[in-house]
Amino acid sequence: MDFRILPPDGILEASASLPLSKSINARAIVMAHIAGSSEEPVACDDTRTLASILGAAKLEGTVDVGPAGTAMRFLTALAAASPGCVCTITGSDRMCRRPIAPLVDALRGLGADIKYEGTEGYPPLHIEGRRLSGGTIDIDASVSSQFISALMMVTPLMEAPLEIELKGNTGSLPYIKMTAEMMRRRGVNVDVEPLRIHVDNTPYRAPHADDAEPDWSAAAFWYEIAALSAGWVTLTGMRENSIQGDSAQAALFEKLGVTTEFTDDGAELSATPELFNSLDADMSGMPDAVPALAVTACMVGVPFRFSGVGALHHKECDRLEALVNELAKLGFPLEIEAYGTVLSWDGRRLPVRELPVFDTYKDHRMAMALAPTAIFVPGIVVRDADVVGKSYPDFWKHLQEAGFTLLDPSEPIPEPSE
User: For the whole model, what pTM was predicted?
Assistant: First the structure.
């Protein structure tokens, strides 16, 4: 499914009810399963995949997670820590090229029986579950915070408490703190320090009723829309005091001309002409916001330097290379620096001779980040637009409700009305 996108007429005033956080929901599903109960998945492909797999009597046979990276990591730890489980966990072609060795090495250090069925360090994985020992392990924390979260969540299944020593630069620390807070709400003591995490092996209590929150990662695209349209957006139900690390994006988007006011209804976003001359930020704590921030900064003309983005090479696609390729179609020459850990733009814009047709690389965040550029460049095309189902299935519907027009690319662009 490809869309040609036209912007709203006039000043944009929109309201959107975002999907619930898939990051929170995925963790809740795993913790509920360990506690012997269940948790309903939110409306997105990733959490439906995880809930569907765990809805079976037990993990066994071939378990195919498709493109769901969260499911791959969380299920690897869960299967390894579940006595009697015998399964092979695999996924899409891209998933089988995403590294998982740090998690496997850590689990093996706790006594796990895991074998690579293909390339060393990558899925598929053959796992025979057993009771893991607990104790002290170390792990390379620079690749994915989900490795650490996976280990933390299965600690109640271990023989002893777990001490995790973090090596390298810890990526996405706010997501680790999210996991810790959710475990505390379920009765498990967790202590998170900069280089060490302690987790007790006490059982989970009943599910916590106050977990559900709208997804701050999805909010980034509406901040982008507010910035580019100079309009107003209401995000219903958003919380100022959120356990999601991506809530910190509000301060960065303020430097790109979007203010946030929290009311009883949620977050009120409004555009202002006040832009910073440049934006320099460490994005290691919220890498999912990078596509929306990079596109916004380019479109409003604010040079940027985002450090701590090396993990984006290993997402649904290589998001850094994808951003370089696709924003070049709008004339913005982005650069990847510092051995792949920094993304920057110096403010230059080159001539563009044709209307961009954007590739999405089977990546939901690329599709959603590129779509709002239609506000400045009406008629852009987004290919494979249905990839948004991974995290935000109603994104295109909500865009239409905000006044955007979605056309088949073969249809002519309507003449503007007088």
Answer: 0.91
